[in-house]
Amino acid sequence: MTDTRRRVKVYTLNEDRQWDDRGTGHVSSGYVERLKGMSLLVRAESDGSLLLESKINPNTAYQKQQDTLIVWSEAENYDLALSFQEKAGCDEIWEKICQVQGKDPSVDITQDLVDESEEERFDDMSSPGLELPSCELSRLEEIAELVASSLPSPLRREKLALALENEGYIKKLLELFHVCEDLENIEGLHHLYEIIKGIFLLNRTALFEVMFSEECIMDVIGCLEYDPALSQPRKHREFLTKTAKFKEVIPISDPELKQKIHQTYRVQYIQDMVLPTPSVFEENMLSTLHSFIFFNKVEIVGMLQEDEKFLTDLFAQLTDEVNFLKEFCAFSQTLQPQNRDAFFKTLSNMGILPALEVILGMDDTQVRSAATDIFSYLVEYNPSMVREFVMQEAQQNDDVSKKLTEQKITSKDILLINLIIEHMICDTDPELGGAVQLMGLLRTLVDPENMLATANKTEKTEFLGFFYKHCMHVLTAPLLANTTEDKPSKDDFQTAQLLALVLELLTFCVEHHTYHIKNYIINKDILRRVLVLMASKHAFLALCALRFKRKIIGLKDEFYNRYIMKSFLFEPVVKAFLNNGSRYNLMNSAIIEMFEFIRVEDIKSLTAHVIENYWKALEDVDYVQTFKGLKLRFEQQRERQDNPKLDSMRSILRNHRYRRDARTLEDEEEMWFNTDEDDMEDGEAVVSPSDKTKNDDDIMDPISKFMERKKLKESEEKEVLLKTNLSGRQSPSFKLSLSSGTKTNLTSQASATNLPGSPGSPGSPGSPGSPGSVPKNTSQTAAITTKGGLVGLVDYPDDDEDDDEDEDKEDTLPLAKKAKFDS
């Protein structure tokens, strides 16, 4: 539908009594079968979706305001409004509503707003109209009483409003106001205050249009100066005419626009300063006043946007008029999304970003603050537009610097984004309010989630390359300057807050930027400098530094791990842990969690590095089992390194376990069940034919050595309780113990090692030589009966957890069987 007469915006009133824009579309009226009646339909102009479907109820009160608005309530606390582009369209739909309700289209309201009792309705119906007293000085008290008595009754309010409109009564009252002021009739002025305040509470747009007209509004404000509750009258008119001066930032040639700006300012002043704070019962009575101001602002933005000469002049003088532009942008937030898009595109085409760059370089802090607010509007609206601008600017500066060979020009220091970073770093606010705002904007700009990818280019690749080349050194400058020694050179609260903000942004980069930040951290030795802050007296800053390292370790990237080990970057963390002592606080918990993550995730390189270099400092920590668990992990790794045959045997077992074909598996299962127990030698378990081909001596020799070492170790380490896997993978708790009454043949142990599902990892909890009690939650077990009692072999997941699920299913059947030993 292209009929502009029926083009409307749909608004709803929220809980804060502010109008929310629901979209733009075209309105029509027609019979809707589902609603069983004539209804108003609004379909979005963008995609034709239904924005509004509202039945025209015979008893709903519709109000027509400002010739282009229709407002009504669908339910309690749910108000709707249609704002028409043209008056003709509003009149057409208004006639349809009045036709359904049987009303005269000349009225501005079709129904009473609230149902009344039958007695009130009968009393009011008996008198067809409300007769106002003659507008005379002697009858002001009578008029004030009539207005006050009419407010509680919606029907009487409606009749009073119609009487005031039809007889031009408001202008007559304002004439009496001049007479009372000339005669200094204070009593009459008090009555006029009550009358005008009551007219406001009638909540009628038609009355507001009269009261807020150029000839009447100052007299209305004058009436509201004489509050009977005050000993002296207020001087609102004096403030508006002498103190508050209208300054045209850019000359406005349109007289209608100028009048609309004056009117909006004065009505806003009446609402905020002149009228008393409404009570709970009066608040809804001023909803039309809120709407009047809101739609006036919408009209002002639209009229300014359409004035090309005004915008051109504005941008020519932008450096002096930035505060005006800030308010301009703030007003634009009331526009619907499509119009707001057009508004910001217009600003961009006019050169808003280069102008902001100039303003941000000025010394005036107030002007810079306003420019920052404008920049935040642009970033929130379209971060890609800002990114594209700064990249083009950098390219232009690079081209210029190449031509100037006599001087070395560092153009990157004047980039817009670097100005933002510098303002963040140089924020003089003790609480760093501006720096926090700017850090949020920077994070939005470097967030890959809102970057676009097209067939020809990837915004993420281009912008991050630019950012790390031209901007990252500016961001990290305060960090590097403050960490040249073993402790922070400046450790005051404001510096600590600033460095915490920088670390927060760097931590975000570690999580989202992969190789860009990795290269920067390793090449610039950033982590070592960050860990200097672990010595800060401010706990929040030390925790920020620890969080940065924890984020790096969480990536489990061997490039990072080698860098950490080469530079011994656990030393500041261990020092902070020991200095913290036995205090149970956030620092203590965070450091333990980091080492627990290394243990649970079995990061072998870091485990070995920590134990080899810091075990003596950590071995006495026994209130958690984290460090003993790390030691156990380290010993398991060393056992595998010392026994390559055992490690290769484990590999062979996995190969047989996962690589045998189905026919071989069936033959071995058949042999398992057909073998007579009497044919077995004492203490010898049934072994699959494929495994018997291996040389038993080669297998058993390392196992024997391993068992001897294990027995010696048991005297020192009676039991090690393995904690629950922090990553969600459950590790059954168990105890390592050797019983002298339990004797298990090495041959039976070797055959048990070959059972499918039993990892042969030397020193691992589920390996041979680790007999003990088996917990009930163990997922896979193979029970072996010996002379000395029941020995449980606990099956733990191998390191090869990435094997196919189908291959795991092949292990299920053999694991369910029991290996029997002949007694």
TrEMBL record:
GO cellular component: cytosol; nuclear speck; protein phosphatase 4 complex
Residue stretches spanning the membrane: none
GO molecular function: protein phosphatase activator activity
SUPFAM superfamilies named in the record: ARM repeat (SSF48371), PH domain-like (SSF50729)
Record field: compositional bias (Acidic residues): 673-684, 796-810
Domain (Serine/threonine-protein phosphatase 4 regulatory subunit 3-like central) ranges: 142-636
Pfam families tied to this protein: EVH1_PP4R3, PP4R3
InterPro entries: ARM-type_fold (IPR016024), EVH1_PP4R3 (IPR055236), P4R3-like_central_dom (IPR006887), PH-like_dom_sf (IPR011993), PP4R3-like (IPR051137)
Gene3D superfamilies hit by this protein: Pleckstrin-homology domain (PH domain)/Phosphotyrosine-binding domain (PTB)
Biased composition (Polar residues): 728-755, 775-784
PP4R3 EVH1-like domain sequence ranges: 5-101
Region annotated Disordered, chain positions: 673-702, 728-823
Record-level GO BP terms: DNA damage response; gluconeogenesis; positive regulation of gluconeogenesis
Family recorded in the similarity comment: Belongs to the SMEK family.
Protein name: SMEK homolog 1
Organism per entry: Cebus imitator (Panamanian white-faced capuchin)
Gene behind this protein: PPP4R3A
